[in-house]
Amino acid sequence: MSSVLKTPAGSAGISELPFASYAQIIRMLVPPAERISFYDVRGNALWINDGVDEPEFRMHVELVIARARQSTAPHGPTLAFDHDDSAHVFPVRNNAGAVVGAVGIACRNLANGARYRSAEAVERIIAPVMNILGHAWPVTAESAPMASAPREAAGTRQAAVAASQLQASMPVPALLRKTLSVATDLIDCAFGGVILPDRPFTLSLGVSPDESDLAITAAIDNVREHVLKWMKVRNEPLVANSAGRGQLPHKLLVVPLRDASKRPVALLMLFRSAKARDFAGVDVDELTQLAARIPTEALAALAPPEPPVIASVVKLPPAAPAVAAPPVVKPQAAPVAKPQVAQKPAVPLPPARPSVAAQPAAMAPKPAPAPVKPAAPRVTVADAPRIVVPTTASAATNTISMDERVRSALREGSFDLYAQRIAPMGNTPESPRFEVLVRMRDAGKLHGPTSFFAAAESSRLLPDLDCWVIGELLRTLRKRAVTVRASSLEFSINLAGQSLATDQFAEFIVAEVCRTAIPAGLLVFEISERTALEHEDEMGLLSARLRDVGCRIALDNCRSGLGTLDPANRWPVSRVKIDGSLIRNIGVSSRSESQVRAVAQLAADRGIETVAECVENERIHEKLLNMGIDFAQGFHFAKPQPLSTLFG
């Protein structure tokens, strides 16, 4: 599949290049290449074989072009940027050595040590094509070398009036918050934030009532790494008005805040809705003018301290030189000194998947607790429980309760995702569909949901577990985005009632979906019939938000017969899954058979898909064919398998 994107302004002549032909040549030279893309000198996508302009990859393109344009040698070596060990970006140079564009190549499913994982190897292979492309590329105004002098901020009279509200005598946090307030109002933005390059500090301010605190935090975290990379290369304002087919819901403007030595110590970020007007040069000038009002003395306070944290240990009184304990407690013997081991950051931790349980709740101190591994920070649901129970290394596994094991598994990421195929009935070809299932690894064993679900529910850990499943699934699919889109792989995720009743859970899902390159229509969220009826208000909110971003809703474990159609009519349900208790009794109970048949008929009349669960033999399969069921799921078709096996 090929796609010619909308030609950016100023790139009309470039669009006449036969990019499809160049892509075919590159694919012959690099057979594993699944995604080939061409960009102009500003980083705008000109042609992509699958038609999807991924925001993250595009940020890498802009960084590579910026690096190449800053090179002093007109015919210097071609620069390449490795992404995920198998994606590369190569700048295109014309006869004069000026950078005129870039080519992106993504190879998927490469074995470790494969030849095409090396950017240098790919660069040597495609060098003839790059030379030909550089000769054929039309010269544009942007192709001229970049001026080394920084742009002077012109500003506006309105910005000067607004800047007068910033008082140098304000405390630094208050001054930054006031700057955000003035900037978002002056430049008409939905929200803004301030981040520090060298420390995990984020200050955010929301203006639009449509943006929740969770969505604002997710939006800032989504671009944080890429913005920091940009500033390291260019150290100038960044404007991102196009995210590619609406994959990111915001437009971005970033201006660095510099200290007296012109070193960027903070980044001032403003966000607009994707439907709002583009950021223009006057917006950059106004924000730069506001940033200049912040005194350099205040910005110096944001810079990381010169001496390391160890210097504070040197200043401790001699009475307690090596014990980080309150002064009233004197070190005596090994029982007091041993907890000190937990404070040494030099011990490397084994890699683990990010945990949803980001911070433990406050607990009463216990004697000699064992070290608790810090969980990776991530966006979490604000009201979900965050209780972490410390365990001793010498405790036997069989003495630990199941709820403590679930908490430990959430901390360590000791869950695995599995997928079970949802098969179409009959011979009608359909895109592959799968239901996502979760397994827990504990003491060398793999536990199914029946082993830990009740404990997780009684401890109110299901919101944490649902967040982990959603985040881990989308991270996995993001690495295989090209395969998922090309094959239209569809995935269904189960949601618990506790999650629906958790504040901001719907916004968490929306934020996670929006930050990936996966089409939202390939994600289906399953809520049981009973859960939907018990949480009607939350179900209405969730279904509306998911519909807004393009996701779909399925009613799971439907066993009410014709009563199932009431919730199906109340909310935008696109699929009904008939409970296995009814399916297993087909051929045994005439009542079950009539209920299944009635649901199938009425759902078909309303355009709702039907899925039969727990189909375990050919006899039931044949009966379902005669009832008009659309899809079936069960061991008769496929057993659950690790999610990773779907991609080879």
UniProtKB/TrEMBL annotation:
InterPro entries according to UniProt: Cyclic-di-GMP_PDE-like (IPR050706), EAL_dom (IPR001633), EAL_sf (IPR035919)
One Pfam family recorded for the sequence: EAL
GO MF annotation terms: cyclic-guanylate-specific phosphodiesterase activity
The EAL domain, residue ranges: 399-648
Top-rank taxon, per record: Bacteria
Protein name: EAL domain-containing protein (Putative c-di-GMP-specific phosphodiesterase class I)
Species whose genome carries this gene: Povalibacter uvarum
